[in-house]
Write a structure and sequence with these properties.
Strand content: 35-45%
Number of helices: 4
Order of helices and strands: HEHEEEEEEEEHH
Length: 169
């Protein structure tokens, strides 16, 4: 899939290269500019990220696609190698490259928002208003227990145990 990021876009943008710089830049953008929890988009092996202040356009390029099971929500989320969005105060809109699994379907995520910066709840909106879900914002702040849980796959085990329990009816 060809990239939507052009040279002209890069020339207008604040661009970071390398995982550590991308992580730092994305956290700053989410915390200070948008007002969303700083770990709402978990990065792994990010190569490039950019932000065009005039338009609010944001992009993230990762080395490979990845899937993350959030043990707190029980949702499996897939992140493409290229993620784009428009950043506005209190929300990311027109998100591409992120989808979550609901039963057997993969549903694109198109918006993430909060009522105000530092709000206690964050809302995720699916494509074509197929649904939305609201969760505590603290579930998406940088948290070592959450990070370790995802890396060690404990969230997957918990979800599978719950699913098996439901199937034994």
């Amino acid at each position: 899939m060809p990239s939507v990021i052009t040279k002209e876009m890069r020339d207008k943008a604040i661009v970071h290269y390398g995982h550590d710089k991308c992580q730092e830049g994305l956290r700053y953008l989410l915390d200070e500019v948008v007002g969303l929890p700083n770990a709402i988009i978990p990065l792994e092996n990010a190569e490039e990220c950019g932000y065009i202040p005039e338009t609010g356009f944001v992009w993230i390029k990762q080395q490979k696609k990845r899937q993350v099971l959030n043990p707190r929500t029980g949702k499996l989320t897939a992140y493409s190698t290229e993620i784009t969005a428009y950043a506005e105060p209190c929300k990311l809109t027109k998100i591409t490259g992120v989808k979550f699994k609901e039963m057997v379907f993969w549903i694109p995520l198109v918006e993430v928002n909060v009522d105000k910066p530092g709000a206690e709840m964050v809302t995720f909106v699916a494509t074509s208003n197929l649904g939305q879900a609201t969760f505590p914002a603290k579930w998406w702040t940088e948290d070592e227990d959450m990070k370790n849980s995802i890396q060690q796959g404990r969230g997957t085990k918990t979800l599978l145990q719950r699913t098996k329990g439901l199937l034994k009816v």
